[in-house]
Amino acid sequence: MTKTNPLYLKDILSADQFDTDALSYLTKQAATMEKIVNTKGATDVLRGKIMTALFYEASSRTFGSFVTAMQRLGGGFVPLQGVTYSSVSKGETLPDTVRTFASFSDVVVLRHPEVGSAQIAAEFSDKPVINAGDGVGEHPTQALLDFYTITKTFGSVRGLTITMVGDLLNGRTIHSLLRLVSLYPKVTVHLVSPDILKLPAELTSMARKRHVTLTETETLDDVLPVSDVLYITRVQKERFTDLASYERVKHYYVITPKVLSRAKKTAIVMHPFPRVGEISLDVDLDPRALYIREQIKNGLYMRMAILKSILKP
Ligand code: NCD
Hints:
Layout: H1 20-39, E1 50-55, H2 61-72, E2 76-81, H3 94-104, E3 107-112, H4 117-124, E4 129-134, H5 140-154, E5 161-165, H6 172-181, E6 188-192, H7 201-209, E7 213-217, E8 229-232, H8 243-249, H9 257-260, E9 268-270, H10 291-311
Parallel strand pairs: 1-2, 1-3, 3-4, 5-6, 5-8, 6-7, 8-9
The chain binds N-carbamoyl-L-aspartate.
Protein backbone atom coordinates (compact mmCIF):
# COMPACT_ATOMS: atom_id res chain seq x y z
CA MET A 1 0.00 0.00 0.00
CA THR A 2 1.28 3.44 -0.89
CA LYS A 3 2.36 5.69 1.95
CA THR A 4 3.05 8.60 -0.36
CA ASN A 5 0.40 11.22 -0.88
CA PRO A 6 -1.28 10.58 -4.26
CA LEU A 7 -3.18 13.88 -4.29
CA TYR A 8 -0.59 16.63 -3.79
CA LEU A 9 -1.52 19.54 -6.10
CA LYS A 10 -3.89 17.29 -8.08
CA ASP A 11 -7.39 18.14 -9.28
CA ILE A 12 -10.27 15.95 -8.17
CA LEU A 13 -12.53 15.67 -11.18
CA SER A 14 -13.84 12.10 -11.29
CA ALA A 15 -14.00 9.08 -9.01
CA ASP A 16 -12.25 7.25 -11.85
CA GLN A 17 -8.94 8.84 -10.94
CA PHE A 18 -8.67 6.83 -7.70
CA ASP A 19 -7.19 3.38 -7.30
CA THR A 20 -7.42 1.21 -4.20
CA ASP A 21 -4.09 2.52 -2.85
CA ALA A 22 -5.30 6.11 -3.07
CA LEU A 23 -8.55 5.12 -1.35
CA SER A 24 -6.65 3.45 1.51
CA TYR A 25 -4.49 6.54 1.84
CA LEU A 26 -7.49 8.89 2.01
CA THR A 27 -9.38 6.64 4.40
CA LYS A 28 -6.42 6.71 6.80
CA GLN A 29 -6.14 10.48 6.48
CA ALA A 30 -9.87 10.86 7.15
CA ALA A 31 -9.56 8.70 10.28
CA THR A 32 -6.74 10.97 11.48
CA MET A 33 -8.89 14.04 10.83
CA GLU A 34 -11.76 12.44 12.72
CA LYS A 35 -9.48 12.01 15.75
CA ILE A 36 -8.26 15.60 15.51
CA VAL A 37 -11.81 17.00 15.35
CA ASN A 38 -12.97 14.82 18.24
CA THR A 39 -10.02 15.62 20.48
CA LYS A 40 -8.79 19.14 19.67
CA GLY A 41 -11.44 20.39 17.24
CA ALA A 42 -8.87 21.86 14.84
CA THR A 43 -5.25 22.03 13.64
CA ASP A 44 -3.27 24.73 11.85
CA VAL A 45 -1.70 22.53 9.19
CA LEU A 46 -3.18 24.68 6.37
CA ARG A 47 -2.50 28.07 7.94
CA GLY A 48 -2.02 30.64 5.19
CA LYS A 49 -3.86 28.57 2.56
CA ILE A 50 -7.10 29.80 1.01
CA MET A 51 -9.92 27.82 -0.61
CA THR A 52 -12.48 29.34 -2.96
CA ALA A 53 -15.89 27.64 -2.79
CA LEU A 54 -17.52 28.54 -6.11
CA PHE A 55 -21.07 27.21 -6.14
CA TYR A 56 -23.39 27.75 -9.13
CA GLU A 57 -25.95 25.27 -7.77
CA ALA A 58 -27.74 24.86 -4.43
CA SER A 59 -25.79 23.18 -1.64
CA SER A 60 -25.90 22.82 2.14
CA ARG A 61 -23.72 19.89 3.19
CA THR A 62 -21.04 20.01 0.49
CA PHE A 63 -20.56 23.77 0.84
CA GLY A 64 -20.78 23.73 4.64
CA SER A 65 -18.42 20.82 5.08
CA PHE A 66 -15.77 22.20 2.70
CA VAL A 67 -15.85 25.56 4.48
CA THR A 68 -15.69 24.06 7.96
CA ALA A 69 -13.05 21.56 6.84
CA MET A 70 -10.82 24.42 5.66
CA GLN A 71 -11.35 26.33 8.92
CA ARG A 72 -10.64 23.31 11.09
CA LEU A 73 -7.36 22.92 9.17
CA GLY A 74 -6.44 26.50 9.95
CA GLY A 75 -7.00 27.85 6.43
CA GLY A 76 -9.22 30.59 5.06
CA PHE A 77 -11.91 30.61 2.39
CA VAL A 78 -13.79 32.74 -0.13
CA PRO A 79 -17.45 31.73 -0.02
CA LEU A 80 -19.23 32.20 -3.34
CA GLN A 81 -22.48 30.41 -2.82
CA GLY A 82 -25.11 31.65 -5.21
CA VAL A 83 -23.05 33.48 -7.77
CA THR A 84 -25.82 36.08 -8.24
CA TYR A 85 -23.76 38.73 -6.48
CA SER A 86 -20.56 37.99 -8.38
CA SER A 87 -19.61 39.04 -11.91
CA VAL A 88 -21.22 35.84 -13.19
CA SER A 89 -24.48 37.84 -13.16
CA LYS A 90 -22.80 40.29 -15.59
CA GLY A 91 -22.15 37.44 -18.01
CA GLU A 92 -18.65 36.42 -16.98
CA THR A 93 -17.60 33.02 -18.34
CA LEU A 94 -16.62 30.06 -16.15
CA PRO A 95 -12.96 30.13 -17.32
CA ASP A 96 -12.61 33.83 -16.41
CA THR A 97 -14.28 33.39 -13.03
CA VAL A 98 -12.17 30.36 -12.21
CA ARG A 99 -8.93 32.06 -13.30
CA THR A 100 -9.82 35.05 -11.15
CA PHE A 101 -10.34 33.04 -7.97
CA ALA A 102 -7.37 30.79 -8.71
CA SER A 103 -5.28 33.99 -8.63
CA PHE A 104 -6.34 34.71 -5.03
CA SER A 105 -6.51 31.23 -3.61
CA ASP A 106 -4.76 27.85 -3.45
CA VAL A 107 -7.63 25.54 -4.40
CA VAL A 108 -11.02 26.03 -6.08
CA VAL A 109 -14.04 23.90 -5.14
CA LEU A 110 -16.60 24.08 -7.95
CA ARG A 111 -20.24 23.06 -8.16
CA HIS A 112 -21.82 23.75 -11.55
CA PRO A 113 -24.90 22.52 -13.46
CA GLU A 114 -23.03 21.36 -16.56
CA VAL A 115 -21.41 17.94 -16.97
CA GLY A 116 -17.70 18.44 -17.62
CA SER A 117 -17.58 21.93 -16.07
CA ALA A 118 -14.95 20.92 -13.51
CA GLN A 119 -12.77 19.52 -16.28
CA ILE A 120 -13.02 22.82 -18.16
CA ALA A 121 -12.31 24.80 -14.99
CA ALA A 122 -9.23 22.66 -14.33
CA GLU A 123 -7.91 23.32 -17.82
CA PHE A 124 -8.02 27.06 -17.18
CA SER A 125 -6.96 27.08 -13.52
CA ASP A 126 -3.34 26.95 -12.42
CA LYS A 127 -4.54 25.81 -8.98
CA PRO A 128 -6.15 22.47 -8.17
CA VAL A 129 -9.90 22.23 -8.86
CA ILE A 130 -12.21 19.97 -6.86
CA ASN A 131 -15.43 18.84 -8.54
CA ALA A 132 -18.21 19.31 -5.98
CA GLY A 133 -20.87 18.17 -8.46
CA ASP A 134 -21.02 18.78 -12.22
CA GLY A 135 -24.68 18.53 -13.18
CA VAL A 136 -25.74 14.91 -13.64
CA GLY A 137 -22.09 13.91 -14.06
CA GLU A 138 -20.15 13.16 -10.91
CA HIS A 139 -19.70 14.07 -7.26
CA PRO A 140 -16.39 12.40 -6.37
CA THR A 141 -15.91 13.86 -2.87
CA GLN A 142 -19.37 12.62 -1.84
CA ALA A 143 -18.38 9.17 -3.10
CA LEU A 144 -15.18 9.34 -1.03
CA LEU A 145 -17.11 10.15 2.14
CA ASP A 146 -19.63 7.42 1.31
CA PHE A 147 -16.74 5.02 0.79
CA TYR A 148 -15.33 6.05 4.18
CA THR A 149 -18.73 5.44 5.81
CA ILE A 150 -19.00 1.97 4.26
CA THR A 151 -15.46 0.89 5.14
CA LYS A 152 -15.75 2.25 8.69
CA THR A 153 -18.77 -0.03 9.16
CA PHE A 154 -17.70 -3.16 7.29
CA GLY A 155 -13.91 -2.90 7.19
CA SER A 156 -13.88 -3.28 3.40
CA VAL A 157 -16.09 -3.05 0.33
CA ARG A 158 -14.97 -6.50 -0.80
CA GLY A 159 -17.82 -9.00 -0.83
CA LEU A 160 -20.57 -6.49 -0.01
CA THR A 161 -24.02 -6.29 -1.54
CA ILE A 162 -24.86 -2.67 -2.21
CA THR A 163 -28.33 -1.58 -3.29
CA MET A 164 -28.70 1.81 -4.94
CA VAL A 165 -32.24 3.14 -4.99
CA GLY A 166 -34.06 6.04 -6.66
CA ASP A 167 -32.89 8.43 -9.36
CA LEU A 168 -29.99 6.49 -10.81
CA LEU A 169 -30.17 8.38 -14.09
CA ASN A 170 -29.49 11.83 -12.62
CA GLY A 171 -27.93 11.00 -9.24
CA ARG A 172 -24.31 12.05 -9.53
CA THR A 173 -23.43 10.65 -6.10
CA ILE A 174 -24.37 7.19 -7.38
CA HIS A 175 -22.38 7.71 -10.58
CA SER A 176 -19.24 8.37 -8.57
CA LEU A 177 -19.82 5.78 -5.82
CA LEU A 178 -20.35 2.98 -8.35
CA ARG A 179 -16.96 3.84 -9.88
CA LEU A 180 -15.27 3.46 -6.47
CA VAL A 181 -16.95 0.25 -5.28
CA SER A 182 -16.35 -1.43 -8.64
CA LEU A 183 -12.61 -1.36 -7.91
CA TYR A 184 -13.07 -4.15 -5.34
CA PRO A 185 -13.59 -7.89 -5.84
CA LYS A 186 -16.81 -9.82 -5.19
CA VAL A 187 -19.06 -6.77 -5.07
CA THR A 188 -22.75 -7.12 -5.90
CA VAL A 189 -24.71 -4.00 -6.83
CA HIS A 190 -28.49 -4.01 -7.14
CA LEU A 191 -29.85 -1.02 -9.03
CA VAL A 192 -33.44 -0.21 -8.10
CA SER A 193 -35.23 2.54 -10.01
CA PRO A 194 -38.32 3.31 -12.06
CA ASP A 195 -37.76 2.55 -15.73
CA ILE A 196 -37.35 6.24 -16.67
CA LEU A 197 -34.63 6.73 -14.05
CA LYS A 198 -32.36 3.79 -14.86
CA LEU A 199 -28.60 4.16 -14.56
CA PRO A 200 -26.97 5.29 -17.85
CA ALA A 201 -25.87 2.26 -19.90
CA GLU A 202 -22.20 3.29 -19.99
CA LEU A 203 -22.08 3.03 -16.20
CA THR A 204 -23.67 -0.42 -16.08
CA SER A 205 -21.20 -1.66 -18.68
CA MET A 206 -18.27 -0.04 -16.82
CA ALA A 207 -19.27 -1.88 -13.62
CA ARG A 208 -19.79 -5.20 -15.40
CA LYS A 209 -16.44 -4.89 -17.13
CA ARG A 210 -14.86 -4.53 -13.69
CA HIS A 211 -16.60 -7.76 -12.59
CA VAL A 212 -19.33 -6.29 -10.41
CA THR A 213 -22.35 -8.59 -10.23
CA LEU A 214 -25.09 -6.20 -11.28
CA THR A 215 -28.88 -6.44 -11.35
CA GLU A 216 -31.50 -3.86 -12.36
CA THR A 217 -35.02 -4.00 -10.97
CA GLU A 218 -38.00 -1.75 -10.28
CA THR A 219 -38.81 -3.10 -6.83
CA LEU A 220 -36.95 -3.55 -3.59
CA ASP A 221 -38.74 -6.81 -2.77
CA ASP A 222 -36.07 -9.37 -3.63
CA VAL A 223 -32.95 -7.32 -2.97
CA LEU A 224 -33.83 -5.72 0.38
CA PRO A 225 -33.30 -8.83 2.55
CA VAL A 226 -29.84 -9.51 1.07
CA SER A 227 -28.43 -5.95 1.06
CA ASP A 228 -25.57 -4.81 3.29
CA VAL A 229 -25.81 -1.20 2.14
CA LEU A 230 -29.07 0.47 1.22
CA TYR A 231 -28.16 3.73 -0.56
CA ILE A 232 -31.29 5.83 -1.11
CA THR A 233 -31.38 8.90 -3.36
CA ARG A 234 -33.72 11.80 -4.03
CA VAL A 235 -35.49 12.08 -7.39
CA GLN A 236 -33.66 15.09 -8.85
CA LYS A 237 -36.54 17.47 -9.63
CA GLU A 238 -34.23 20.11 -11.10
CA ARG A 239 -33.14 17.71 -13.88
CA PHE A 240 -36.71 17.17 -15.20
CA THR A 241 -38.09 19.16 -18.11
CA ASP A 242 -41.51 17.54 -17.67
CA LEU A 243 -42.80 18.07 -14.12
CA ALA A 244 -45.71 15.65 -14.60
CA SER A 245 -43.16 12.82 -14.95
CA TYR A 246 -41.41 14.03 -11.80
CA GLU A 247 -44.70 13.94 -9.88
CA ARG A 248 -45.29 10.35 -11.02
CA VAL A 249 -41.94 9.04 -9.76
CA LYS A 250 -40.98 11.37 -6.89
CA HIS A 251 -42.14 9.00 -4.16
CA TYR A 252 -41.70 5.73 -6.02
CA TYR A 253 -39.74 4.38 -3.04
CA VAL A 254 -40.35 5.45 0.54
CA ILE A 255 -38.31 3.78 3.25
CA THR A 256 -40.34 3.35 6.45
CA PRO A 257 -39.71 1.25 9.58
CA LYS A 258 -42.05 -1.36 8.05
CA VAL A 259 -39.95 -1.56 4.87
CA LEU A 260 -36.76 -1.77 6.94
CA SER A 261 -38.13 -4.65 9.00
CA ARG A 262 -37.26 -6.82 5.97
CA ALA A 263 -33.63 -5.65 5.85
CA LYS A 264 -30.66 -7.39 7.48
CA LYS A 265 -29.97 -6.49 11.11
CA THR A 266 -26.42 -5.63 10.05
CA ALA A 267 -27.41 -3.52 7.04
CA ILE A 268 -26.80 0.23 6.90
CA VAL A 269 -29.04 2.89 5.37
CA MET A 270 -27.31 5.77 3.58
CA HIS A 271 -28.55 8.88 1.74
CA PRO A 272 -26.46 11.80 0.45
CA PHE A 273 -29.23 14.24 1.48
CA PRO A 274 -31.28 16.34 1.08
CA ARG A 275 -34.15 13.89 1.49
CA VAL A 276 -37.55 14.95 0.25
CA GLY A 277 -39.75 12.16 1.48
CA GLU A 278 -37.81 9.03 0.42
CA ILE A 279 -36.99 8.09 4.03
CA SER A 280 -39.62 8.69 6.69
CA LEU A 281 -38.48 10.58 9.77
CA ASP A 282 -39.16 7.65 12.12
CA VAL A 283 -36.42 5.65 10.36
CA ASP A 284 -33.88 8.07 11.90
CA LEU A 285 -34.17 6.24 15.22
CA ASP A 286 -33.14 2.92 13.69
CA PRO A 287 -29.50 2.16 14.55
CA ARG A 288 -28.95 1.16 10.91
CA ALA A 289 -29.75 4.71 9.71
CA LEU A 290 -26.32 6.29 9.21
CA TYR A 291 -27.20 9.27 7.00
CA ILE A 292 -27.27 11.83 9.80
CA ARG A 293 -25.39 10.07 12.59
CA GLU A 294 -22.36 9.15 10.46
CA GLN A 295 -22.45 10.13 6.82
CA ILE A 296 -22.68 13.91 7.22
CA LYS A 297 -19.87 14.01 9.82
CA ASN A 298 -17.74 11.75 7.65
CA GLY A 299 -18.12 14.43 4.97
CA LEU A 300 -16.22 16.85 7.19
CA TYR A 301 -13.44 14.36 7.98
CA MET A 302 -13.03 13.22 4.38
CA ARG A 303 -13.02 16.78 3.02
CA MET A 304 -10.38 17.73 5.59
CA ALA A 305 -8.34 14.74 4.37
CA ILE A 306 -8.80 15.81 0.74
CA LEU A 307 -7.85 19.46 1.30
CA LYS A 308 -4.82 18.58 3.38
CA SER A 309 -3.64 15.98 0.85
CA ILE A 310 -3.99 18.41 -2.06
CA LEU A 311 -2.28 21.32 -0.29
CA LYS A 312 0.50 19.60 1.69
CA PRO A 313 3.07 17.17 0.22
C1 NCD B 1 -26.26 15.54 -3.55
C2 NCD B 1 -25.88 16.35 -4.78
O1 NCD B 1 -25.81 17.57 -4.73
O2 NCD B 1 -25.65 15.68 -5.78
N1 NCD B 1 -26.20 16.29 -2.37
C3 NCD B 1 -25.00 16.36 -1.72
O3 NCD B 1 -24.05 16.90 -2.21
N2 NCD B 1 -24.92 15.73 -0.53
C4 NCD B 1 -27.50 14.77 -3.68
C5 NCD B 1 -28.78 15.48 -4.04
O4 NCD B 1 -28.82 16.69 -4.24
O5 NCD B 1 -29.79 14.78 -4.13
